[in-house]
């Protein structure tokens, strides 16, 4: 098939995140399987306007907030009538392809923005975004839609979507053969956070929770892996002082995949307190390294963690509840080992080949090639 993917960023964009990893892993496999894949995306400083990367043709036009209009112009001039299916990825601002693309279409959601608007944007844009999202998504209700979690599927069904399919993300790592023995873990009880350090991830909640954990586990450590906005990093450092965590917290910044996996393997538990996630890819990665997760009960995270089996879901989305769950795992090695073993087994289900194959089947149905 001739496939066009519309996304606001590509894998080489300095701001690329999990959505771009998912897109590229799927696209390059489709090329390997004999399909022609073009990715239309925004440019960035130093970007090449057009290139081929691992078989995927990448076309870059405009910037983050103009790429949607540039996609419309480029399609009308060069691509109309020459495609079998168009994959429209919705990352906050939609491409609105149902209004102008004549070929068959598939909508692709990693997550809805919803509460993220309230944490990541300033007034009045945060309120405008929060209120308007259900309205502008109505144009997608009648086309096949792919999401990465059941939580997002339920969100869209409530908005009137009719054909919503769940296709879970794969992982870039090979799960360990067995859970690492205690000797391979960090010397001190260690909680790990991996992800962007931004308000919607509520890393400050994790810092506060670890401050509370110290009352029961005095030698607890927190590792924060990832980078983010300067003002939010400043808030974190203020939290460190407030909860007297000097010497108990280490900022690793952005690290390589190999280093990330090493830290996941050494940590005793992963902690996440996001407002919402599409799926929780980092949870499965940690599981593959034999490390269970403790998470807030939010979209995506409640899908990637099976409570009491592969990790723990907090009773409340508050630092105190997170602290209680962390203490229960850090002080109970037998429970932690049991969860780690189940989590490792759970992680083996997620491969990029499976993700790409399931998504391709939906795209073929949409294009009428059954």
Automatic annotation (TrEMBL):
GO-annotated molecular function: glycosyltransferase activity
Keyword tags: Glycosyltransferase, Transferase
InterPro entries, per the entry: Glyco_trans_1 (IPR001296), Glyco_trans_4-like_N (IPR028098)
Segments forming domain Glycosyltransferase subfamily 4-like N-terminal: 17-173
Pfam families: Glyco_transf_4 (PF13439), Glycos_transf_1 (PF00534)
Superkingdom: Bacteria
Keyword Glycosyltransferase among UniProt keywords: yes
Residue span, Glycosyl transferase family domain: 184-345
Protein's recorded name: Glycosyltransferase family 1 protein
């Amino acid at each position: 098939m001739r496939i066009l993917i519309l996304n606001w960023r590509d894998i080489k964009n300095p701001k690329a995140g999990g959505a771009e990893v998912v897109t590229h892993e799927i696209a390059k496999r489709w090329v390997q399987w004999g399909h022609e894949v073009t990715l239309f995306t925004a440019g960035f400083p130093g970007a090449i306007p057009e290139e081929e990367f691992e078989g995927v043709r990448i076309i870059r036009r405009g910037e983050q907030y103009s790429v949607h209009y540039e996609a419309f112009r480029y399609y009308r001039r060069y691509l109309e009538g020459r495609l079998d299916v168009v994959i429209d990825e919705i990352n906050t601002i939609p491409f609105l392809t149902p209004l102008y693309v004549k070929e068959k279409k598939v909508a692709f959601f990693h997550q809805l923005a919803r509460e993220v608007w309230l944490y990541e944007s300033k007034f009045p844009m945060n309120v405008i975004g929060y209120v308007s999202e259900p309205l502008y998504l109505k144009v997608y209700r009648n086309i096949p839609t792919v999401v990465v979690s059941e939580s997002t599927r339920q969100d869209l069904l409530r908005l009137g979507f009719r054909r919503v399919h769940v296709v879970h993300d794969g992982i870039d790592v090979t799960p360990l053969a067995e859970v690492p023995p205690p000797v391979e873990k960090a010397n001190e009880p260690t909680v790990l956070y991996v992800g962007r350090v931004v308000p919607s991830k509520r890393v400050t909640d994790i810092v506060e929770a670890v401050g509370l954990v110290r009352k029961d586990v005095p030698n607890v450590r927190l590792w924060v892996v990832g980078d983010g906005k300067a003002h939010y990093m400043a808030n974190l450092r203020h939290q460190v002082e407030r909860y007297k965590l000097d010497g108990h917290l280490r900022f690793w910044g952005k690290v390589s995949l190999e280093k990330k996996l090493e830290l996941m393997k050494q940590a005793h538990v992963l902690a996440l307190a996001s407002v919402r996630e599409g799926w929780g890819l980092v949870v499965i990665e940690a599981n593959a390294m034999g490390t269970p997760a403790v998470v807030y009960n939010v979209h995506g995270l409640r899908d990637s963690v099976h409570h009491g089996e592969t990790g723990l879901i907090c009773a409340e989305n508050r630092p105190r509840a997170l602290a209680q769950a962390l203490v229960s795992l850090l002080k109970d090695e037998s429970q932690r080992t049991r969860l780690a073993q189940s989590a490792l087994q759970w992680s083996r289900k997620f491969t990029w080949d499976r993700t790409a194959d399931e998504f391709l089947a939906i795209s073929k149905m949409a294009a009428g090639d059954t």
